[in-house]
């Protein structure tokens, strides 16, 4: 057996069993605390809502366990099971150019992976989310979204894939630098274009028409020096009962977006505090820092791929018998999550640090009590567990656990 094959199998087993162990910890922690609302929330969240959140979390854990095992098996089928190698052989027999063959293989993997994941997507929407009262998506909307997502992926993905494969073939040993430049340019462009071009294809964005709330928000924006391309309410309730708020875009195309579900459930002061938190990400330059991190990590990843692409053991170790640029790219995308899983707590630590910084900024610009009240309402309405396992949270959550976050804001009162 190829040494790299052994390493890959060991890492896949370690990652999978670690994740299953983490879900066991999460299940036990949530189940143990299901009977009683935690003290910081016992006068804010009814026991019934707390138990709903616990049951919702446990249901997601059951699905996550199945998904983990299923994904590991599918990955082995693609690699050591010969799935990708067979697909590569079929396309090579058509005797197309290397770039067209690569596009064909990549598209085939994309479509096959989407079909294999479809049962989980359907169950999440019409099973799990439906059971807990969050799903508002109709089968027609679900199918339309699926078709539209596929079309957008093709319209955007085909030219980008062609450019990447052409650069890999034509630009010599340092091709990865040129690919990195293209990828970063594309990523930044999409951050700018997504809110105005793609998002409206899925949701309706209406200007905020509550004059009192709008005036209050505009005063906050003026005070904080934030310029946006508008304040919008998104029809999130068309698909889900979950609520949220965010700002998106870059440069002159920045937008502030509230879910309609959030607008209905929060007071004007609470909405102002939530927006102050979102503005905190902007004022603390978190977006720029994340772009910088993405740039550095993608450059390192492509540099690694630039070395691996010339190593025969990389292909044979993952079940592919004939080397090619596109096979290296696909195998790298398959293998990287396995090897990077244990790094995820460090990346999530940074995002949680950013959340604390944004909360600190919100506490300076608005009443921290209002933000606490807003967060409690969001925890309740989104059925977010108040008692996550700390280790599970470290590997999975981009936001601090509810008790820690509320305690942190409480210190600002």
Descriptive overview:
This protein has 413 residues and is mainly alpha-helical. It has one domain (1-413). Helices cover 72% and strands 4% of the residues. Strands 1-2-4-3 form a four-stranded mixed beta sheet. A hairpin with a 6-residue loop joins strand 3 and strand 4. The longest helix has 34 residues, at 98-131.
H/I helix tally: 16
Query: Terminal Cα separation, in Å?
Result: 62 Å
Radius of gyration: 23 Å
- State the strand order across the main sheet: 1-2-4-3
Instruction: Find the count of extended strands (DSSP E, 2+ residues).
Output: 4
Helix/strand structural class: mainly alpha
Helical residues, percent = over 70%
What letter string, H or E per element, gives the SSE order? HHHHHHEHEEEHHHHHHHHH
| Biggest β-sheet description | 4 strands, mixed
Q: How many domains in all?
A: 1
Q: pLDDT below 50 for ≥5 consecutive residues: which ranges?
A: none
**Mean model confidence by pLDDT:** 92
Give the overall silhouette.
globular
Strand coverage percent = under 5%
Brief summary:
The radius of gyration is 23 Å and the shape is globular. It has helices spanning 3-32, 47-78, 83-92, 98-131, 139-170, 175-202, 211-224, 260-265, 268-283, 286-308, 312-317, 325-340, 344-365, 368-381, 390-396, 402-410, and strands spanning 205-207, 231-234, 245-248, 255-259. It has a four-stranded mixed sheet.
Question: Helix and strand layout, with pairings?
Answer:
Blueprint: H1 3-32, H2 47-78, H3 83-92, H4 98-131, H5 139-170, H6 175-202, E1 205-207, H7 211-224, E2 231-234, E3 245-248, E4 255-259, H8 260-265, H9 268-283, H10 286-308, H11 312-317, H12 325-340, H13 344-365, H14 368-381, H15 390-396, H16 402-410
Parallel strand pairs: 2-4
Antiparallel strand pairs: 1-2, 3-4
Helix pairs in contact: 1-2, 1-15, 3-4, 4-5, 4-12, 5-6, 6-10, 7-9, 9-13, 9-14, 14-16
